[in-house]
Each structure stands twice: as C-alpha cells, then as structure tokens.
Prior knowledge:
The protein is 43% helix and 23% strand. The chain is of the alpha+beta class. It has 3 domains: 2-166, GAF domain (Beta-Lactamase); 193-333, Beta-Lactamase (2-Layer Sandwich), CATH 3.30.450; 357-583, PPM-type phosphatase domain (Phosphatase 2c, domain 1). It is rod-shaped.
Amino acid sequence: MENTSESSDTTFEKRLVELQSLFELSKTLNSSLNLKTILDTLLFTPMGRMMITQGAILLKNGQENQFTIAAVKGLANQNIHKEISLPQQVHTPCLIEEISHFDGLAYLQGIGLKLLCPILSNNKAIGYIVLGGKITRQVFSEDELEYLASFANLAAPSIENSKYIRELQGLNNELDRKVQHLKTIFEIGKELNTTFEQEKIASILVFAIMGEMMTQRVAVVECNKPDQPVFVIAKGFKEHESNSTQIFQKTFRVLKKKQRALRLNEIETKTIIKYYDKIGVRVIVPMFRQDVLAGCILIGERLNKADYRDDELEFLSTLGNAAMISLENARLFKETLEKQRLEEELAIAREIQRKLLPAYPPIIPGYEFAGMNHSHSQVGGDYFDYIQIDEQKWAVTIADVSGKGVPAALLMANIQASLHAMIHTEWCLADKVARINNIIHANTNMDKFITFFIAIIDTQKHELTYVNAGHNPPMLFSGAKQTDKVRLLETGGLILGMLKNVPYQQETIALHRGDLLLLFTDGVSEAMNEKDEEFEEFRIEATIREHMQESAADIMHCLEKAVRKFTGTAPQSDDITILTMRFKDSDA
C-alpha cells in the first residue's frame, strides 16, 4: 500500500508540474502577438522537454488541405515557405508512419520528422507541430502525447490572434500606403496646376515616379496621333531606345484593350515584350484623357529589384491621368495664347487691309460710285479700288485672289501695290495689265493666281476703256429705256500670275446717260443656300433691274441683301465684293 501511495503522489506531482508548465506557456503565448515569437515557443518548449533536435511548424494557407512550413528548428531554412499537403482528419498527436499515405507526409519523413501534432480551432486543423525523434531514441509516451495535445490547443488562439493582428497590420500598412499615395498625388497635383509648361509638367511627373518607385528609368510618351508617338521626356533611356513607332502602335492597341497599367509579363505580344525587356522597361502605364488613350508612361526596374504591387500600379495610373489632364491643359493654354496672338495679328492685318481699300467713293460730277467688301474671314483676298489718274480720268478695278485668309490677303496687297505703281505710266491699259501679270507671276507659286478687271473712265469724253483678266464679266446696264440688254465686259486675256508675257486686249465703250456698271466677285455669283444652289448671274441681273432707278449705293446694298436672303442660314463661303458706277448726266 505504501508503494501505491508513493506512486500516486509522484503522478500527482508530475501532473501538477505539467499544469504549471502549461499555465506558464499560456501566459507566454498570450503575452505576445508576434507570430515568430509564438512559433518559436511552440517549437522550443516541447523540443527542450522531450530532448528533440528537429522540429517544424506548419500553418494553413487558405487552400484545401494545404499547409506552409512557417518555422523550423534543427532543419535547413530552405524548408521555410515549402507548401505541404496534409490530411485534415488528424485530431490527435500521432506518428507520421501510422497515418495513411498523403502527399506531404513523405516529404516530412524525408527531412527527419516523425510526430505530427495538430493545432486545432473549432475542431479543424489550423496548423501542425511536427517533431523529430528523441535523442534517447525512446518512444513518445501517452503522457507526452497528451501534453502535446494540450500544448497545441493552448497555442491555437494565440496563433489565430497573431494572424488577425498581422492581417490587420497588413491592412493598416496598405491603408498607410494609399494615404501616402493620395498625399503624393495631391502634392504633385498642386505642383502640376501651377504651371502650363508641358516640359515642366512632364519633369515633375517623372521625378515623382522615380522617387516614389525607386527607379532610374521613366519616360512619358504622348500619342495624340497614333502614328506619331512623341517622347515628352525620357530619363535613363538612350535616345535610340525610344524611337520605335511600330512598337508603340502595338503598345497603344494593347493599352486600349486592357485599360490599365501592365507589368511586362502581363503582355502577350512577344515583339512588345522583347523590345521593352531589351531597353529595361518593366511597367507600362496608360494615360487617359476623358476615356481616350492619350499617352503612356514607361517605367524601368526598381533599384531593389522588387516587383510592382497592384496598389502601386493603381497609384501610377491615377498619377498618370492627373498629369495627362495637366498636359492637356498646358496644350490648350498654349493653343489659346497662340490663337490670341494670331487673332491680334489678324486684327492688325485686317486693319492694314482695310486701309488698302478705299474708305469712301470718289465724288465726280455726273457720276456715282459705291463699293463694299465683306471678307469670309478676318482678312480676305478680294480687292476693289478707285484711283485718280489725272483731272479727267479715274481707274476702277476689282480683283479676286485664289484662296482665303492671310496668303490671299498678302497677294491682294501685292496686286494693290503693283497697280498703284503702274497706273500712272504712259503705257496703254493692256500693256499695264501685262506688266502687272509678269510681276505677279514672278512673285507667286503656280497654285496662286488673280482674276482681275480694270476700267479707266474718261469723265470728259464719257468713255470706258477696260481689260478683263479672267474675272467674272462685269455687267453694263444701259440707261436707255428702249433696251434691256446687258453688256458683259469680257475683252482682255488670261488670269494674272499663270504665265509670263501674256498679251492682253483692251476695249473702249461710250457711256450714255443712266448707264450702270456692276462689278462683283464670285462670292456674289457663287453664294450658296442650304440646298447647295448658287445665286448665279441671272439673279444678279434680275435684282439690278428691279432697282435700276435707285442710286448706285442703294443698288449695291439691294444686291447684297438679295444675296443674304438667298443664302439664309448657310455660312458665307467666300469674300463678297461689289462695286457699282452710274453715269448720271452727259451734260455735267
């Protein structure tokens, strides 16, 4: 009986020691949220107690029956992170050799491990303590297995808490990164909005990416024209490494399809991968402007060789889009300034051109003159003029330069200067026109020409001598009531500027009381309405006849109103110039 009592006391004391050990272990585990500390405790405690030199901790990795080696003692570190397939049905400590075949068991046995102890939570294994054999080569006793089971169960809450904390820390770290990214975007955005220089905007963007991503290679490419990629800025790339139009056309097609930033290994086109891998690009970030791909950012390898995370690609995309907005604003601002400068220059040109045209018609006894010009744009190529030659002779002229805008206006100034230089010479009118033609031919290209009409009116003889160089034939309406014929003044020759040394003919016509001369450019006869119908000469003639008894100025304005009414809401397509002259009194 005495031996039995001593045995009971020994067992009790042993149990008490185990309970104290488990209690101390529980306090140790619960006092730490560091997973590595917990795992080290889980290995050192049983290995020291049972004199074991090898051990490992496996933790469930989220996949069915899949566990990852998270910690090792007495084993090579290369085993860490190794994924092992283990059975979920093991609920108590047992020898590996006693378990039916499972993929990962052979591996564990191969590295010298013998005992498998599940770490259970809600009756499911969240991990395993795997131990090697004892130094003493003794078998594991029932008490030791029971102790291991209790030990593992105590560790389960600590492991789960640690995983939750780690996940929470991961979320916090991700949140911190996003906050930092937003802060960076905000700060860079402020800088981008303070300048309208495209080069400076691109430079701010590039250096921000280089600093945030720790890379030495960044380039910004604009693709406003798909066949003409433009490198706004390139840092770390050699000039010859950034000029493959064909590659960029393929790149833009891929970016349009994917609509997101891409790592190089996410691109399926081999030629693109080969090209960018050769020059050191690792990430391609699209830059969108109102959902339209307008450019991309090429980013090289990081200094620490780390991969680009998804949240970093998202950050780069946001930053790139913000920069593209600033680049577009800078471009629009530059265009606005250029347009403003051009409008100011056009206003000056318009004022100069206005001064080249007569401000008022001449006042000549027995005659009425009227003229008007409405340009299609700020400056035009139509020209009319009255030039006094001597006391009894006046020149009346009209011209239409091919084209519109500034080029036509410059050529119009040329014809005006040439005419004023020639009109007072002693040559006959036809020779004067021929010489003007040579001047125009020598100073213009083949695609530029001028239709031109000039008439010299002798106010004493009441005669009109004219030359028509390819212009719309002016209409001479007779003042005699017994006739309604209109004479078209067509004598002359080829339009100015086409050929050199072209001969011209002139014709002289007697004027009679009431005669009306109408000169106009094709902006009148070819004015179009909404149905694409032209005003044409027959409407011009009908309008003049309807108002034949009115003054020269009133007739001119009536014709202009008739043209405006005919065209309606259709836009003015050409310069409109009209000149009228009436011979009122042969006795004046």
